[in-house]
Automatic annotation (TrEMBL):
Biased composition (Low complexity): 529-545
Ranges where the NPH3 domain occurs: 189-464
GO biological process: protein ubiquitination
Segments crossing the lipid bilayer: none
Pfam families: BTB, NPH3
Protein name per the record: BTB/POZ domain-containing protein At5g67385-like
Similarity comment: Belongs to the NPH3 family.
Keywords: Phosphoprotein, Ubl conjugation pathway
Chain segments carrying region Disordered: 526-558
Record pathway: Protein modification; protein ubiquitination
């Protein structure tokens, strides 16, 4: 029985081969004799004048169209959905006529799809186009990374037929297999550039297939960066010109960006902060989903210690004439960073603070100060926004208040119409006792600062100089918050200071001159202390006084102290508020006096 079936199959195969040979010879004869065409095939806008016999002998679709036609003499055939268009059909027609042409990775995808569409299978002719194209794909094209990439690139224009014949999936598997197998594989290879021209959905499938075969997620970062830079190219030109894309084009770029963000590796430092900033700017401009934007903000916050000022200076794309930069986005990034720091502290309470962590905190603090100073010159920046973002700067990251003072000075200069209360609120952001000597000298002559702030600066500077004059060995103990709070929160004190504004202005010039003289005396004192060491003289009076400190000599410091006492009437040198205008002299105990 089996032998009988084998014989029948052999006979059938032999008949098909003879029929195929006969049809080939007939096609060659028709072509050589230049017999007039009897059918016109329309593919898109192109028309082909051909002969029915060669087409019917190998194309199942055309055979069905001819046999099912009610017109006995069919002269026109329409093929509107031919994959690959006129170019692909022309190659298929050449194959039907037996005309030789070269098959390569550039046209194999087109040949395979048009052969599927025209039903050029072994059922109608031995060695038909479907079998020939499949053999080339399996034995040549998919054996190399270059061939698989090239075929995949061409296949994306042949959908859905390319998906039907599983050409796309086979190319993706081949790319993933070869890429993961090659130990010398590098993401800067030539083929990575070819992948960037793929449609975003096919590109995503390639990356997912590579990861499923064991390719490291963080190693895909260079490829994602390359794809993003090419696919979003030109976006910054429209952003600067405040122009909008066409709706369809904008939608396509939005889908591309959201897909790229979903593929980004989660490993820290896998991507640069500047690249994340570029993606965030594009996300804001294209108005992507909130989840996409928040994801990018959190990624930037995790690497804020590596960011530069330009990474945070994100333009505002609201098109409403508001602030020049997107302050709200930068503020959320800073809040995310502080939240991450709190989580680290909560999870690692027993850890010993390292110099690297403290160094990063100081870098972030300087970055925030520079950002606040940069946006301070924006005339549309409200007081509340300026204060809210400035308050985010961690105190432990601010060794001095010079950066904060610089930002405040820029803001006051750009907003001269602020009320006294608003200027006080802005100046309350800095701690005057942490200003450097240079900053104090500048603040003392800064007419933009409220007079209360100038008084506070001069007070702390005088106290610092006094400590230096007294030896500078002991730790400088500055009065803490009460002095600062009394100035800005005590209504009575503020009212009293306002009454003395006229007097303070008259004495301001004299006080600045005295400060300059004080610095000159300080330099002379330092030179004298280096040349000879001070000697301690004891006398009868100091012995009788016991632990009481000696009375201060009348000097230049006394005169400045008296003048500052008049400028700062509410706080004593020990930080305690005083309600009396004069000093009450203690009663002298004559029984224990020493004459």
């Amino acid at each position: 029985m089996a032998d009988s079936e084998a014989e029948k199959a052999g006979v059938c195969s032999s008949k098909n081969e003879r029929l195929s040979t006969a049809m080939k010879r007939t096609s060659e004869w028709i072509f050589s004799q230049e017999i007039p065409s009897d059918v016109t095939v329309h593919v898109g806008e192109a028309s082909f004048s051909l002969h029915k016999f060669p087409l019917v002998s190998k194309c199942g679709l055309i055979r069905k169209v001819v046999s099912e036609s009610s017109d006995g003499d069919l002269t026109s055939i329409e093929l509107p959905d031919c994959p690959g268009g006129a170019e692909a059909f022309e190659l298929a027609a050449m194959f039907c006529y037996g005309i030789n042409f070269e098959i390569g990775t550039e046209n194999i995808a087109m040949l395979r799809c048009v052969a599927e569409y025209l039903e050029m299978t072994e059922e109608y002719a031995i060695g038909n186009l479907v079998g020939r194209s499949e053999a080339y794909i399996n034995e040549v094209a998919l054996k190399s990374l270059a061939g698989a990439v090239s075929v995949l690139h061409m296949s994306q224009t042949l959908l859905p037929t390319a998906e039907k014949v599983k050409l796309v999936s086979r190319c993706i598997d081949a790319i993933a297999f070869v890429a993961c197998k090659d130990t010398q594989f590098s993401m800067v290879d030539w083929w990575a550039d070819d992948l960037t021209v793929l449609r975003i959905d096919i590109f995503q499938r390639v990356l997912v297939a590579m990861m499923s075969r064991g390719f490291k997620h963080y190693s895909l970062a260079p490829l994602l960066m390359l794809y993003a830079q090419k696919s979003l190219r030109g976006l910054e030109v429209f952003a600067k010109g405040r122009k909008k894309f066409e709706a369809q084009h904008e939608h396509e770029k939005r889908v591309v960006l959201e897909t790229i963000v979903s593929l980004l590796p989660r490993e820290k430092n896998a991507l640069s902060v500047s690249f994340l900033s570029m993606l965030l700017r594009a996300a804001l401009y294209l108005d992507t989903t909130v989840a996409c934007r928040l994801d990018l903000e959190k990624r930037m916050a995790a690497q804020l210690g590596q960011a530069a000022l330009d990474d945070l200076l994100i333009p505002s794309y609201a098109f409403t004439g508001d602030t020049l930069f997107d302050v709200d986005t930068a503020q959320r990034i800073m809040v995310n960073y502080l939240d991450l720091e709190l989580e680290l502290d909560a999870n690692e309470q027993q850890r010993i603070p390292s110099s690297s962590s403290s160094g990063e905190l100081q870098r972030v603090g300087r970055l925030m100060e520079n950002y606040v100073a940069e946006i301070a010159s924006d005339r549309n920046l409200s007081v509340s926004k300026f204060i809210n973002i400035a308050e985010l700067i961690p105190e432990q990251s601010r060794v001095t208040e010079d950066g904060m003072y610089r930002a405040i000075d820029i803001y006051l200069k750009a907003h001269p119409a602020l009320s006294d209360m608003e200027r006080k609120k802005v100046c309350s952001l800095m701690e005057c006792q942490k200003l450097s000597r240079e900053a104090c000298a500048h603040a003392a002559q800064n007419d933009r600062l409220p007079v209360q702030t100038v008084v506070q600066v001069l007070y702390y500077e005088q106290q610092r100089l006094r400590d230096v004059m007294n030896g500078g060995v002991a730790e400088v103990k500055l009065p803490a918050a009460p002095a600062k709070l009394n100035i800005y929160s005590n209504e009575t004190a503020a009212a009293t200071v306002s009454d003395e504004l006229s007097l303070l202005r008259r004495e301001n010039a004299d006080l600045k001159l005295e400060l300059v003289k004080m610095k000159m005396k300080m330099r002379e004192f330092e030179k004298a202390s280096l040349s000879s060491s001070p000697q301690t003289n004891t006398n009868t009076n100091t012995q009788l006084q016991g632990d009481k400190p000696p009375l201060p000599k009348k000097s230049f410091m006394n005169s400045v102290s008296k003048k500052l006492g008049r400028l700062y009437p509410f706080v004593r040198a020990d930080g305690i508020a005083s309600n009396t205008k004069g000093r009450v002299r203690p009663a002298k105990d004559r029984r224990h006096s020493v004459s």
